[in-house]
Amino acid sequence: MALNATLSQHSQSSTGRQNRASSLTRPIFYLLGILLCAEAVAMLVPAAVAWIAGDSDWRAFVASGAITGFSGGSLYLTCRGRPIVIRVKQAFLLTTAAWLTLGAFGALPFLLHVPGLTVADAFFEATSGLTTTGSTILLQLEEMTAGVLVWRALLQWSGGIGIIMLAVAVLPYLGVAGMQLFRTDASERSERVLPRPGQTATAIVAVYVTATVACATSYWLAGMTAFDAALHAMTTVSTGGYATSDASLGQFARREVEWVAIFFMILGAVPFVLLIRAIRGQTGSLFREDQVRMLVFGVALSGLGAAVWLNVNEGIPLADALRLTLFHITSIVTTTGFVTSDYQFWGNAAVVAFFFLTLVGGCTGSTAGGIKMLRFRIVYVALRMQFHRLIFPHGMFPPTYRQRVVSDEIISSVLAFLFLYLLTLVAATIALSLLGLDFVTSISAAATTLSNVGPGLGPIIGPGGNFAPLPDAAKWILSALMLLGRLELFTALVLLSPRFWRS
Asked: Does 466 map to a domain?
């Protein structure tokens, strides 16, 4: 009887563990199934374009859509049933699993159609698109079929809206890297206008689509064809940077195109919650936002200084120099990655400046990557408080942001993020160097993928280069960095902690 009781207890314990595991993973697989079904439907768009254009790659997109749809449908049908409730641990798992899974299935069209690509190549290209990084391993884009070009643009466009939703709805509630402050800031100012989360999400999608249409129309009026205008609008508003030519926007050689790109790259890098308020008549809230002011003034001052440098040292007329510098600095700071010329020829000072600009990023709640303006603002607040305490040891100087006290939790979270960001950058640079890459290529490749920017530095991956020559091991490392950067590091790295799984 004692043996039977022991076996019964063991069976109950095993059943309990299985039930807990099922309750943990079922909502994740259910939602992954929905996302995969949506991705399968998206694959029909380039399939239709390829079929209309008479290209044979429509079969690759249909096959990829069938595989993706079957996988997603199977997960959905298997896991549906009870109401879906997502808790904190499941949110961490779902966020990382979603970007990995969508990237893996998004690589199928490249793998099935583009000859000579390895699995590492295809996953790199799809991940770069989905995370709106813009680094590419594809060569001779001018000769690519319309379906492939449309799929690359769709990956970046859908990734952009996913990034906004991630920043507004998920990361703030997970307490990731100072995003708690954005939750307080965004919710307090948006709930008065849009009281329900669903309304906010709908409004964000509407603004995103409207900005894309406006950008496409502007590009068309600036001299692009309708096809190029639509694709470049999708990759501009999403701050992704995929183009239809190896020369990026330099293929058009039109000043009007560059000015349109500058405006919409900035638009894509500002918080979309504030854009909603501005459209509803409260434009003052957009220009009073510290993040937006830092972004606009930072780009303007950097562009003006670089233009004077080019005018004095290279003899470029000031007006042309200002357009060149504003375009490229905006492109890098907003993490879009478009280029019209190789800024490495502007001198060593320009190369150093562009490396550090690669790390900056746009605003929180936008499609941009990088460290982001909000965190720089919090670091400034913390440093100012520290200096005041050194000068007046007995004074009271609470750190404030927008007339609210910033908690020690948020400050420590931001500082921990910055430390982990730099640590990841150093570790990735060392790993790439061990694969035989030179120092400039290693550190710039790590920086540009971690910040989701696109072009690196050096003769291989510079503005006029490509990531195709890198070994497959390097591409896997850089793909991981793209995901880590897009998920704000902690969201993915917390899964490596044993305590996360025990808690």
From this structure: yes
